[in-house]
Amino acid sequence: INYIETSTWTRQEHNGFSHQNPSFIGAVLNLKPTAARVYLPPDANTFLSTVAHCFKSKNYVNLMVGSKQPSTVFLTAEEAENHCRAGGSIWKFASTDNGLNPDVVIVGIGSELTFEVIAAAYLLKKRVPELRVRVVNVTDLMILAAESLHPHALKDDSFNSLFGEDVPVHFNYQGYSTELKGLLFGRPNMHRVTIASYMEEGSTTTPFNMMLLNETSRFHVAIKAVEGGAKKNEKVRLKAHELVSELRSDMADTRRYIMEKKAGT
Fold it and tell me: Which of 61, 64, 63, 65 lies closest to 1, judged by CA?
């Protein structure tokens, strides 16, 4: 059975909670691991690869969550195939020094949520170039599960190769945080993980305001990256308060702009 969801809370423009609630992800996660598969392809090429894979599969319940709106294509067709085959990978083009020796790892799961992670990495490169950032995208949600709990789950060594062994990790996730917490339960050193996700905030408003209201915007991701990176990088620690204050000011300015323009329409 193949389900495709393309009307999500991240682009809320009409109905309220009825078009926002992402709990169907949890419903699929609660199925037996031999049947459940959840994919969140981040762009058009990964979506094509995912659809092709799911339509050929048998005896699975496949849930594909993506966007029906025009959006950035991050990967070539070949890169998308490799990325989907792995279930997740380091996005070197958005990372510092191709992701080597990071102070912090920021992870996008979901198309719009990943876009905000990429935007946050760009912000950080401009504002605090001394912060070493690794950007990771996860397209197969099941790779996060403890290796004994799902056939797609990464072994701990592979998990650490993506997310590091003791580096702060921040997830920007399409669904509810409890879903990720359940999947990650049993992985070592999970005290270093923070999760931003849908908080049941917002109604008919602008897409970016939905990100602000649910604390998944590029500004929120950048703040978490600074706070996490400051634990390891002394140069970042010295200016962390200043950077966070600046990013919070950017958020306030953006909220004012949204309300002024939205009120005038």
Answer: 61
